[in-house]
Amino acid sequence: xxxxxxxxxxxxxxxxSIPKPIKRVLPHVVLLAYVAVIxxxxxxxxxxxxxxxxxxxxxxxxxxxxxxxxxxxxEAWVKARISVYFWNSLYLSLSxxxxxVLLAAATAFALTRxxxxxxxxxxxxxVLIGMLIPGNVLFIAQYVLVMKMGILNTHWALFLxxxxxxxxxxxxxxxxxxxxIPTDLEEAAVVDGMGAIRMFLVLILPLTLPALVTVFIxxxxxxxxxxxxxxxFISKDALKTLPTGxxxxxxxxxxxxxxxxxxxxxxxxxxxxxxxxxxEKIIEGITAGSVKG
Amino acid sequence: MKSTLKNPYVYAMFVLPTLLLYCxxxxxxxxxxxxxxxxxxxxxxxxxxIGFDNFTTAFNDPDFRNAIVNNMYFILFSVxxxxxxxxxxxxxxxxxxxxxGFYKTTVFxxxxxxxxxxxxxxxxxxxPEIGPLNKLLSIFGIEPIYWLADTKWAMVSVLAxxxxxxxxxxxxxxxxxxxxxxxxxxxAAEIDGASSRQRALLITVPLIRxxxxxxxxxxxxxxxxxxxxxxxxxxxxxxxxxxxxASYLVNEAMGVDPNYGFGTAISLIIFAFALILTALYQLTxxxxxxxxx
Amino acid sequence: MKKSIYLGITLILxxxxxxxxxxxxxxxxxxxxxxxxxTTAADTTEKTETPAKTEEExxxxxxxxxTVSLRHIQISDAQKFRKAILDDVVxxxxxxxPGLTIELDGVEDQVNRFTKLPAEMAAGNPPKxxxxxGGAGDALKYAKAGRLLDLTPIIxxxxxxxxxxxxxxxxxxxxxxxxxxxxxxxxxxxxxxLFEKYNIKEPTTWDELEAAAETLSSNKITPFAMGxxxxxxxxxxxxxxxxRYAGPEAIDGFPAGSQAWNxxxxxxxxxxxxxxxxxxxxxxxELGLEYADMLNQxxxxxxxxxxxxxxxxxxxxxxAQAGDLTNQxxxxxxxxxxxGKGNQLAVNGNYSNGYGFSAxxxxxELTAVKAFIKNLYSEEMQLRGLLxxxxxxxxxxxxxSIAKVEDPIVKQVMQILGSSGGAFSHFDSTVASDVYKExxxxxxxxxxxxxxxxxxxxxxxxxxxxxxxxxx
Lengths: 293, 293, 472
Hints:
The complex is a heterotrimer. Chain A contains 14 helices and no strands. By secondary structure, chain A is mainly alpha-helical. Chain B is mainly alpha-helical. Chain B has one domain (about 60-290): Orthogonal Bundle (MetI-like fold), CATH 1.10.3720. Chain B has helices at about 10-35, 55-60, 60-95, 100-110, 115-125, 130-140, 155-180, 185-190, 195-205, 210-225, 230-235, 245-255, 260-290. Chain C is α/β, with parallel strands linked by helices. Chain C has helices spanning about 1-35, 80-95, 110-125, 140-145, 150-155, 190-195, 205-220, 230-245, 250-255, 265-280, 290-300, 320, 365-375, 380-390, 400-405, 410-420, 435-445, 455-470, and strands at about 65-70, 100-105, 130-135, 170, 175, 180-185, 185-190, 220-225, 305-310, 330, 345-350, 350-355, 425. In chain C, the strands form 4 sheets. Chain C has a 5-stranded mixed beta sheet with strand order 2-1-3-12-6. A 4-stranded mixed beta sheet of chain C has the order 8-9-7-10. In chain C, strands 4-5 form a two-stranded antiparallel sheet. Chain C is globular, with a radius of gyration of 24 Å. At the A-B interface, helix 1, helix 2, helix 3, helix 5 and helix 6 of A face helix 1, helix 3, helix 4, helix 5 and helix 6 of B.
């Protein structure tokens, strides 16, 4: 069918038509090449982390390590105190995202469900302004603020800005989701005499769970990966988060690349594992956030 | 009917915490930035009002002007090199029948990692003597290139690493839009004999213009915001060849001679730039789509 | 479907929590064993009497536990000797002061000096004890703002006030605000094997130095190892060049307004540096190399000489760090330059790194600080620093102590200092912060070939004049 059409068409293209099998394979070839470029650095890092020293890395850069030298991992975990950084990042990300989601959900509920409509509109627009401001602009002022509050070099210095930073987007997303929930259930509940708080906790939260989970994940990743504030607001080594700790680790062990690669593996693996389980949610959440913003 | 939904106290309870955090960490810093920007506060002693001096100093400083130029490079690279590539890959993935999920998932990975870790990773790849890139080139007999130490190459290297991290994210975004195009349109075109290239250029691309617009806006915002990867890879060097406005800000305000007044002035300049660029874009190219968002 | 996701998340989080808690416990248990020695019978020490140990006073003073924060910069391998000394001082101090726990916080040198500490000073919450650099841009600046503890009464009480060789960098208006832990001089380390191989003898004149560089260069060995990503590294060489071309007085002359940066002699110093750059005498790709990489270049035989501070000498005793160059390294100070002004035999001498203390201390913390000072600034620790770490003493040592030195490099350095007839410091401890900052930016421009020596000098002078005007 197709070939017949080709003959009847005016010959605009004068080149040789590519045989079909190659046509089908070509995109894959190109894409595989691209995927290789994406994945190769990871592979390389893992290989290097298992090599004994720089010399081996230099002489056999692309080869599989001659001996699986796991000692690097031990050294990194202990010397680099990655366990400390990891734990800090983990609990900061969890707490800040959880609190952020809760606060945002409460606010979204109030804005979309409660009847103070005009106030709601104003507050909603007000909160949205936050979406306009890029992260760096507030950095110095936030630093000065945190300094004056006296919480510099404590985890509060990170927890508060992170949670605050997550709010505009979270409110936006959750509110959008809530708007789509029919109000019948609530109206029935109101008739039954349910108070607003109970309604929120018992009715709305469970219904918006998908959005909540998505927002939680987005915020979690945002905090987990954050570098700028974490670097300047915290100087005590025991309080550092993973990104900052990693850079400090790199600075202290610059010349030992095998060790540095180990560090990279440590920081990247948890995220990758999370990603393996939650790909869909993560992709959906982050892309939704950007589009709406 | 109980008007719990109208209860102002409950409303306040739901909304106040959010508003408080938001005002404290978004609004107040914006305001205080606007204030400090006109002083010469260096954190230690009393400050004095110096009017627009900070701004004139900034614009008179060749290093700052250089930083602005570098930001422009980022934007140009993102819009004119990355975006076409993104569209290309997205269409490619959209066209194939199998392994779509695989490609989508893998290209997305770098964007969920911490920029600082990516900076360390690529710092290693670019390492002149041990890094894989130079090793690869040496197979072809090319002398080691000092990717991050040579003023000629530093910017390109950073741009490449940044692209590696973010392209996947945008590809997935555009892919979602492509997959949303009703299949009938493409099928009809195929029956009419349009080649895949014609289909891509004449049908798909126009239909996804809204998302491309979003991608461009996000790229511009991202280019203005970029700082983590620069701080970790080059700290703005060598000799300012990779210095962008945000890294200039960090180096000035948090470096050898902290000057918070100057720093906040620069934050405001960055903010202004971001606003102007976004507005410009909306007015010129954005208009054609009849408003997106 | 959802359930498995939640299960997955919980498992991952649980696993990671367990793992990190285990890692954490290892950390905690090691610090705990350190702290179990806090309560012995001794009481707070202020006197310089020999600490009366083993008193049969099993009166375990159950004093209120308190913590004193200590910021140090001894974090990498090269500083392990100094860290060991610090650890011993900390241990001893904790034993002497009941209830005291000293909490160590290690930060990289430059980060502490230029980012963390200034920020903390601005916020008014620096650590109680911290590594401090002397000079107008550091200690004196903070002292002026009232952030530093006045140590004059303490050192008098401890009887060590006149034992220090040079407290200029830490003295403001006659009061002492910091104490240097050691001294250093900056000069050339050279690889004995390479010099032997190419028949180069240790340079004693300028011509010999340049000839040595030329010989190395023609044999494809980099004459001078260099890592200029951190601008302070090349500035060491620049400083000594200025000390030679413009004379030792120039260094103090800059902030005094009596020496111009763009005077002919200072420009010659920059010009010489540029000349060496153009001749390719420095490591290629230096702008991407850090201080540690410079050492690496030297130790792995890629470069024949390295201009660095005498504090580096301890590295060359340690097989693990020096590899093939262990005990095969020599040291010489920069020879006089042909057209140089002033005493060409003067050497660079810095007593500008030490410890400072927060002005904001409770009486308990003050006690701890005094004990710390007593323990750290003692003949014993100074000698240990000299013997184990190659760190020149900042205090006067008895001759018998000095005689114990065996390390050839240290001996050589001390000999050089002894016969120098004068010393000049590094301008980073004499000029104001923004002048120093400008020098960092200018030297990198010079290295990258983006500025000429004259342009650099002019730019420096401009900033210096601004600083002088502001100071009035």
